[in-house]
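User: Sequence in, structure out. Go.
Assistant: Echoing your sequence, followed by the structure tokens.
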Amino acid sequence: MAETKMLDGKVVVVTGAGRGIGREIALLAARQGAAVVVNDLGGSADGEGSGNASPAEEVVEEIRKAGGRAVANSDSVAEAASAANIVKTAVDAFGRVDGIVNNAGILRDRIFHRMSVVDFELVVKVHLMGSFYMSHAAARYFHEQ
């Protein structure tokens, strides 16, 4: 009996998918039949830097070599317009979006009294606002679909 793939025909966006847990989620979604948007800003774990598309592109290449479908995106989840562009990447590449995995995050590993306001705001912007921006951008498509 052929294995049933739980995500056949679905399109999934995985943020923070260039490395670590996000990478594994993207690979699993692809193995389960999803077309995947591999989003990764290309910065370090602490959120410094950006524009290095190679982590996302490497995951896309791995998915494609295994026979899956994937595209890379290096926009930030921390701004509404760029989050909307991540979702638009899915629609442009695959015609729809069926799921968002809000995995992107940055690390500001400091004891509370040593954490700057700027660092705290960056964490909130990526973790909290980024999840909202991504889900909000996808909700319109979910409703239409």
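User: And one key feature?
Assistant: The chain has a mean pLDDT of 92.
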